[in-house]
Specification:
single chain; 444 residues; 37% helix; 4-stranded antiparallel sheet; alpha/beta; 13 strands
Length: 444
């Protein structure tokens, strides 16, 4: 598979042109990659109005993922989430409806900011067994929500979630399509899922629109992401994909990131499926060994190793500290979970190293403490009203009874405990304290 963006930039760098254009480094080395860091010079095409080398590269990606159209983002899945919601808004307008989004409660904070910017109405899905990071929406949950709410424009879910849970997207897509709604999937953690022996990517399972953070699970520079549209998406939305991205995007995209997205096409086309199949098989064997030694694992995502360590006497943060002493940096840890993200590029020795480390961690008395229940707070204002209101920072203890103005959350995992516009109850304050949040932004 060709790499038109990489080929052009390398050719331009080799020419040694006097660069009387942006960026200001002029291709002269300070950090290292400056010669390949260009802007939209003649022949470089224009992201979000791509007609040349970028369009050809995006078509390569669409062919690999089996989508009708794939668009690049140099600003992560956050940009793609905003674009997906904009396209849902357009769809509601086409149908003469007031837009309504049904959304899984574990949505990334970017979803909230996009809802505020677009002034969308959201109804939250709180399935049984849900938690801060997991929102196991089932076919039955969705059918009940459609009966309960006025006609939704779209359903928005996170799959896989931060813990590696995989909902039944095929069944959810069928419910959506039977009810005339779009299925939007935040697949930030699952770009590789299409290349498994049995593909599990949302595009393979019936989603209409989907975003992937390529940089999270593929060898792509941070910020590289995809917006995919499937054959089930209305043609008008496919035509407006670039518009949706450009509405929120910088006009100075990183060509280093674009080259990375371009280069990974060739990587995926040449032997990646075989390497992935071999590595996921080995990863599954590691998970079986850890389970047999008493470690509790959650999630079905093949390349995510999520440990619930309290059964072995550790909080996730304590286990993370142990791993760091062994020279291993985890993706995420909180009181209840430790998340490790695997990839074939690490090789089999990475799994052997993890097995050795976990085998040397002594068992302690089980910790029976459970996380507080996620509050279903009273909505006072819309996310837009809350985010655009005057606000102030206050200690959590002084916030009970007040209205949350902005999401109080770090990244990772960037899943808000409470939604902006909701009243802060004592239960919500307890959750803030449990997850180490000492202050939050409230409406004045």
């Amino acid at each position: 598979m060709d790499t038109p963006i990489c080929d052009f930039v390398r050719s331009y760098a080799a020419r040694g042109s006097l660069r009387l254009h942006m960026p200001g480094h002029k291709g002269r080395t300070v950090l290292g990659p400056e010669a390949l860091d260009i802007t939209e010079v003649e022949g470089a095409d224009v992201l979000y109005h791509a007609r040349g080398i970028i369009r050809r590269s995006e078509e390569n990606a669409a062919e690999l993922f089996g989508s009708v159209a794939t668009f690049y983002s140099a600003e992560g899945s956050s940009l793609c989430i905003r674009a997906m919601l904009y396209l849902a808004l357009l769809r509601a307008g086409e149908k003469g409806e007031r837009p309504l989004i049904l959304a899984g409660r574990n949505a990334h904070k970017t979803f909230l900011s996009a809802v505020a910017l677009l002034d969308l109405e959201v109804e939250w899905l709180y399935p049984e067994g849900g938690s801060l990071l997991a929102c196991p929406v089932t076919e039955k949950d969705l059918e009940e929500a459609f009966r309960r709410e006025r006609k939704p424009t779209a359903v928005y879910i996170t799959a896989p979630d931060y813990l590696g849970d995989l909902p039944d997207i095929r069944a959810l897509a069928e419910v959506c399509h039977q009810n005339g709604a779009l299925l939007l999937v935040d697949n930030a953690h699952g770009a590789y899922l299409h290349f498994l022996p049995t593909p599990l990517h949302p595009m393979d399972l019936g989603a209409d629109l989907c975003c992937d953070s390529a940089h999270k699970t593929l060898p792509v520079l941070t910020g590289g992401a995809y917006l995919h549209l499937s054959k089930t998406a209305p043609q008008t939305l496919t035509e407006q994909g670039e518009t949706g991205l450009s509405l929120f995007a910088s006009t100075s995209p990183s060509y280093l990131i674009l080259q990375s997205l371009d280069a990974v096409n060739a990587y995926l086309a040449k032997g990646f499926r075989e390497a992935l199949a071999e590595y996921t098989t080995a990863a599954e064997k590691l998970k079986e060994k850890l389970s047999s030694r008493g470690w509790s694992l959650v999630g079905e995502e093949p390349l995510k190793l999520t440990v619930a360590p309290k059964v072995m006497g550790y909080r996730g943060t304590q286990l993370a500290g142990f791993l760091r002493k062994e020279g291993v940096e985890p993706e995420f840890a909180d009181p209840d979970f430790l998340v490790l993200m695997l990839t074939p590029g690490l090789g089999g020795e990475s799994l052997e190293r993890l097995e050795d480390i976990f085998s040397r961690i002594p068992r302690r008395p089980t910790i029976w403490e459970s996380p507080p229940a996620l509050p279903k707070a009273r909505k006072v204002l819309s996310p837009r009203q809350a985010m655009f209101s005057p606000q102030e920072e206050a200690q959590v203890e002084r916030c009970v009874g007040r209205i949350l103005a902005a999401p109080t959350v770090s990244c990772p995992p960037a899943v808000p405990i409470l939604l902006c516009g909701e009243e802060i109850s004592e239960e919500a304050a307890e959750c803030f304290r449990y997850y180490g949040i000492e202050s939050c932004s409230v409406i004045k």
